[in-house]
Amino acid sequence: MNVEHLFPQDASSTSDTNLEGEVNRYRQKRRRKGRERAALERRTASSEADHIVGFARIWAPYGGAPDDEVFQRFGMARSRFIEKVWETIQDAGCDSRIADQLATAYPRTQVPPTEESETYG
User: Fold this and answer.
1) How many CB atoms lie within 10 A of CB 73?
2) How many angstroms separate the Cα of 64 from the Cα of each of 42, 88, 91, 92, 99?
3) Which helix (H) or strand (E) covers residue 30, if one does?
4) Total-model pTM
5) Residue 103: strand, helix, or coil
6) Where are the domains of the chain?
7) Three-state SS across 41-81?
8) Is-contact 57 89, C-beta < 8 A?
9) Cα end-to-end span (Å), the chain
10) Is residue 36 a contact partner of residue 85, using CB atoms and an 8 Å limit?
11) Of the candidates 92, 113, 109, 103, which has an alpha carbon nearest to the alpha carbon of residue 42?
12) pLDDT, tens digit (0-9, with 9 covering 90-100), for 36-63
């Protein structure tokens, strides 16, 4: 009985080639997904910054966004929103004109003086 047609001699080399091809395709797919995920994270961070600064700029001519609008939109107190605005401006490297526009409506919080720096009369 001739069984050579059932088990060709170069079958192992064919399966090795197929396996290598599958591994390469997997690696390419994984790298592509990693790049896509990184790009999405950059866009999300950028869009969040744009959203915060854009919202702050819309309300700036009216003295800043009201507490309830800030809470509805961002789920945070106005004081935290103001901190977030200034963190975003600093991190995103916003134009100084934008910072000047927002400074009146959203004053930076003063760091409270420490007990050591207070003087008692």
Assistant:
1) 13
2) 28, 16, 21, 20, 13
3) helix 11-59
4) 0.53
5) helix
6) 11-103
7) HHHHHHHHHHHHHHHHHHHHHHCCCCHHHHHHHHCCCHHHH
8) no
9) 112
10) no
11) 92
12) 777 666 655 567 888 899 999 999 999 9
